[in-house]
Predict the structure.
Amino acid sequence: MPILALNGISKRFGTHIALDDVSLSIETGEVVAIIGRSGSGKTSLLRCINGLEVPDSGEILFDGHRVERSRAGLRALRREIGIVFQSFNLFPHLTVEGNITLGLTEAKGVPLEEARKRARDVLRQVGLEDKIGAVPLRLSGGQQQRVAIARSLAMQPRLMLFDEITSALDPELVGEVINVLEKLATDGMTMILVTHEMGFARAAADTLVFMHEGRIREKGPPSRLFAAPVTTELANFIDAILPAGPHISHVFG
Amino acid sequence: MNRTFELSEFLFVVAAVRWTLLLSLVAFLGGGIVGLLIAIMRTTHNRALRLVTAGYIQLFQGTPVLMQLFLFYYGFAVLFDMQVDAWPAVALAFTLYSGAFLGEIWRGSIQAIPRTQWEASACLSLGYVQQLRFVILPQAMRISIPPTVGFLVQLIKGTSIASIIGFVELTRAGQLMVNVTFQPMIVYPVVAALYFAVCWPLSLLSRFLERRIDADLGIKRHL
């Protein structure tokens, strides 16, 4: 049984159709990378999964159960599904430790001492145990994003969503965040990533999903999609994002 | 023989400062409670609550505080045939008046917190009250400190209006001394100086806090 199943999800904003009958299912331990142009519905899809957007139609099953749209239902869901945003969204008035322990103590009822211990553990995982007392604004973008990952990890989610988490970073800071993601993938975390990092998508994803105009147009192993795109949209997309000519075969051959 | 404005008259005026301060304090604390409720209701998804509180704010911001004072002071007498003392009437009127202004200031502060902070905290499975208490209000409070202190200064000066219905605070004490000394050009400057002595430190505090919060948030201003 898949841990997450989306059945015929549609979502429109005014006249704009963000998602058009999208179905997707994810097995435990699977790493799914979603690629596509801006506005193709990638982010809307992630936001529908954990209830930040309410789909107009379709159903979402988590762990075999239909997701309840009530407040209590969403809170229960969000104890199981973590999300990391493009713009970090750390709480600026709290220390790194406070950012991580807040959800644990308040939403999960973990005692403070235990929460602090877990904060140290997850910070070690992302290589920032020395920043436990820092305030977010004093950290670099890459460090802030690793704290955001740690904050989400601390909740011990069964599924993690990553929404273009390296897109707001200076190029030299992307690597440190990618490293953390690779380690998570290796450790068996189930995750869905919206990403523009094609190298990472190819190396770490089990399944690549290509979205175009609110629909899933192609889906399969990254090596197959990159080597032999079926739709012209994916072929054009790959052409547009990769260095021209012979480099393609060099990087993705 | 007329009295002149001497030490005992001066001390009478100075002693009345405490009533100005006490009225301001009561109105500020009471208004703070009302204002917090208003600010929270103004920012909920509940349309009815938003409309009711918007109406409250418009009513109290759109009418002179003197009218509100009269309505509370004389209104009880007329409507319920019940003479209220000046104290409860002015305390209640200024509390509701402050509640409207503080509510509006704090509504703005809450709405200045980016939507992403609501989302990030919701995604950590926090409930609405927890989001407000641990994430939104602590940040909104910092932003709101300078305008809140600014309003407190306005409020302290505004309580002089209570003198009109005979509540003896700083302004009324000054009027009483003018009545017995016929020296308005001595008494009123003294009264004004006493207001200034109370309000100026608060203005300085407000500017100091504003700079400190800007520094915390990494904002640089030109002046």
Summary: Chain A is about 40% helix and 25% strand. The first strand of chain A starts at residue 4 and ends at 13. The CA atoms of residues 5 and 22 of chain A lie 10 Å apart.
